[in-house]
Structure formats: structure tokens, C-alpha cells
Amino acid sequence: xxxxxxxxxxxxxxxxxxxxxxxxxxxxxxxxxxxxxxxxxxxxxxxxxxxxxxxxxxxxxxxxxxxxxxxxxxxxxxxxxxxxxxxxxxxxxxxxxxxxxxxxxxxxxxxxxxxxxxxxxxxxxxxxxxxxxxxxxxxxxxxxxxxxxxxxxxxxxxxxxxxxxxxxxxxxxxxxxxxxxxxxxxxxx
Amino acid sequence: xxxxxxxxxxxxxxxxxxxxxxxxxxxxxxxxxxxxxxxxxxxxxxxxxxxxxxxxxxxxxxxxxxxxxxxxxxxxxxxxxxxxxxxxxxxxxxxxxxxxxxxxxxxxxxxxxxxxxxxxxxxxxxxxxxxxxxxxxxxxxxxxxxxxxxxxxxxxxxxxxxxxxxxxxxxxxxxxxxxxxxxxxxxxxxxxxxxxxxxxxxxxxxxxxxxxxxxxxxxxxxxxxxxxxxxxxxxxxxxxxxxxxxxxxxxxxxxxxxxxxxxxxxxxxxxxxxxxxxxxxxxxxxxxxxxxxxxxxxxxxxxxxxxxxxxxxxxxxxxxxxxxxxxxxxxxxxxxxxxxxxxxxxxxxxxxxxxxxxx
Lengths: 189, 359
What we know:
heterodimer, A: mainly alpha, Rna Polymerase Sigma Factor, Chain: A, 2 domains, B: alpha+beta, Thrombin, subunit H, 10 helices, 42% helix
């Protein structure tokens, strides 16, 4: 019964994460990071390695939680730990961390199918990051304000000193077209 | 329609700003113009990407804040003792495993050695020479009486080992087992009357376990030998008898040839079913006519009634290797053939001697 209760609590936390509840995010982070830190340190990784690894795993969890088909069958701790091990194994293999492969990580990892999705998403994120990075102002901020922060065009027009929302909109369209070009140059649908 | 207008329409369509007519017209345009349709898809994709990009950036930022608020010193302390423990545990484990492996190796090697030794012992233990260990108590009355009557020297010490031998020539050559006289300092031959004569071993053959002795005492007088050595193979089931000294008196034993090979398939010997005891070693094995067919050498300890005798062919080989002129004639005419067993024994017993060995 205790196990089931734990799962219920974990599901609750996960729901909070989906709704961008800061408290849920903080709880998950604080409760699960020490185990990952321990694992990485035990295998001669650094604290920064642990931080990167764990945050990437959190992103995987977050993205998964957004999709409706995701259901948590194992404990959140187990899930995160498995993803961390997988990510770390991949990094060790790709040679970006020049470390010998720990024996206990050389096994088939449970979170494999989850990771394929994540790899695709991660690729798109990197391309978007690059594209946005090379956009320049005011385009970058206009796009962020409208599409991410969901500000109205009127607010944006006022913020950037456009005479009306229509002008701002035209500017936004131009920016979006540039972004599309940058993004789809590197990413094929 | 230029790109700017198209993008405006796409956005208006997606954000639901179009009225019914516009919407229908736009959908129709999408269906008919693949370029427009593609642009629509690309727009949807890029805005979705932008949103998830933004969400991820926000998440990252929040996580960095949480991470900064963590008490890293405490976490580090909680996490670091573990690796040290793990390493030391591994080392200890390695030492233990190495020790266990060494013990296992030694144990298995010892076991193998013991098993092999036991197997060897088992085989040899099954075979027993039938020479006799003598002691003072076993001295017979008979020998003492004979000693007094004939004034012959009988050594006060009865000897360490005893066996049996039999005359092969008229001039004092005697056949016995090699294992009876092996390692002897001095050898004495004693007849049924208790007369003892000093003898020396003149020829020994370990492989057939035979030895030929020469009586060196000048007082020794022999009679013509009434039996011959039969070199043909004795057949299975042939009746045989023997005369030997399992005690200080000559003892008669009767049996038959059981097999054409001896212990462990030794083709130089017979298996004989005949009662033999320590002291019978070197005793002649004779067929019904009184001819020598073999020399009793030993018995199997694990089974009753199984004795072994060296075939007479081995003796022949040995005798042929001896210098003839010194030894004299050894193929005599049989003069026992038509006698009863009692009469045969009466004649034979003068030529069968007790062999006493001192060392």
C-alpha cells in the first residue's frame, strides 16, 4: 500500500509540473537531485556533470508530462534515475566525457523509447536556440513577447514605440519569416 | 499574394480571426495550392517550436534558481563518503576472492593427489606377496629335534622373512620368488628334516618375480630330481597341487588353474584356485603327473581362493639365460607319473625347501 501511496504522490507532483507549478518543480528537484549527484560522483563525474545530467532528465520528464499519453508506472525517483543513467551512458559513449564506462551502467536501459522522442525534441531545441540567437533585436524580443510571453500586439507596439499595432504586426511577420528561414534551413520537416 | 499577406492570413486563420467566408476560402486555397498548405504547416510547426522553446528556457531558469538554493556543501558531504566506501569494499572483496580462490585451488589439488594415491594403493593393496614374516614363537619343535639329531647348524634366529623354494638341478640350484630374497643379507635353505644350508642368490628377475639360488654349503648332498619342468601351457581346469612352508612344516595344497592370466591381466602368470598363505611364495605348482607348471607368487586380498603363479615358461626363459656348464642339467625325467599322490608327495618333499631370509 505504501508503494501505491508513493505513486499517487508522484502523480500529483507530475501534474503540478505540467501546470508549471513552481512548488511541484522545486519538490521534485530537491528530492531527486541528491541520488543523481551521488551516482555521478561515485563514477568520478563532477558536480556540474550531475547538474547538467539531472536538469536534462527533468526536461525529458517535463516534455513527457506535457503529452497526454504519458502515465507514470514506476516511482518518479526510479524514472528520473533511469533517464540519468541513460543520458550519462550516452555521453560516456560519445566521448564528450573522457571517462571509462562503469560496469553497472553497461546494460539495456528501460527508458529507451522515451529517449528517442527526447533526442528529436532536443535537436529542434538546439536549432531554435541557434536561430533565435542569430536573430538580433528587436525581432528576438518581439517574437518572444508574442509567441512565448503571449503579450498582445498592442502592448508590444507600445513597448517598442510603434505607432500602431498593425505596424508592429508587420514587423513581427517579417521577423517570423526570417526565423522560419533560419530554422528550416537546418531542420527539415 | 505576397509572403507577408500569406503569413498574415495563416496567422489569422490559426488564431480564429477569420469569419466563416474567409475561413472557407482559405481552406479551399490550402487544398488547391500545396505551397500554401506547406506554409501553413511550417507556420504551425515554428510557433509550436517557439512555445516549447520558451517553456524549456523558463524551466531551465527555474531549475537553475532551485539549484542555486540547494545546500551543495551538505549534499556533497552526504554523497562523497560513499565512493570511498565503495572502493575499499571492492578492494576487500578482491582480497577475499583471491584468498578463497587460493584455498579452492589448494583443496582441489590436494584432493586430486589424494584420490590418485588412494587409487594406486587400492590396486597394490589387492595383491599380496605370500612370503612369511617369521618370529621366534613360530619355530617348530620339528626343526629343533632335527637340529639336535643331525648336529646341523640352524641359526638361532629364525630369520626375518620366509618363503619356499624347490630344487631345479642335482647340484644345489634352487628356484624361489624374487620378492622372497629381495634385499637379503643372508639366505638359508632348510629341508623337511630341519637341515639348513647357506645359499646365495645367483640370478634375479624382477619382471617375472623369480630368483635362482645356489646352495653354497659344502655339506649339501642332493639326490637325483624326480620331476621335470613342463613348459607347455597348463589348461584351464587342470588339477594342480603345491607344497610349501606357510608354517615351519611343509604343507600340501590342491586346486586348479582358473585363468590363463594373473593379477590385472598379467599374461606371464596363471590365476590358480588354491589355498595359499604367507610362506607359500616360491612354492612349486605341479600338475597331476608331478611336473612343474608354475611358481606360486601371491594372492588377491580382496577375494578368497584367488592365487597367482608365474608360468613355467618364464622359468625356462630364465634358465636358458643361465650359463649351462655351471648349472648342470635341469630337464630331468619324470619319475612320479604313475605314483599315487601320497607317494608323489613323499618323494617330492625332499626337494622342496623353506627359504629363510635375514636382513
